[in-house]
Amino acid sequence: MPSAQTLLQVDDISLSFGGVKALQGVSFDVKAGELFSIIGPNGAGKTSMLNCVSGRYHPQVGSIRFREKEITRLKPNQRCNLGIGRTFQNLALFNHMSVLDNIMVGRHHLLKNNFLTGGLYWLTGARKEELEHRRQVEEIIDFLEIAHIRKAQAGTLSYGLRKRVELARAVALKPDLILLDEPMAGMNHEEKEDMARYIIDLNEEWGMTVVMIEHDMGVVMDLSHRVMVLDFGKKIAAGLPDEIMANATVKKAYLGEEDDDLVDSEGEVA
Question: Domain ABC transporter spans what residues (predicted)?
Answer without folding.
Answer: 8-257
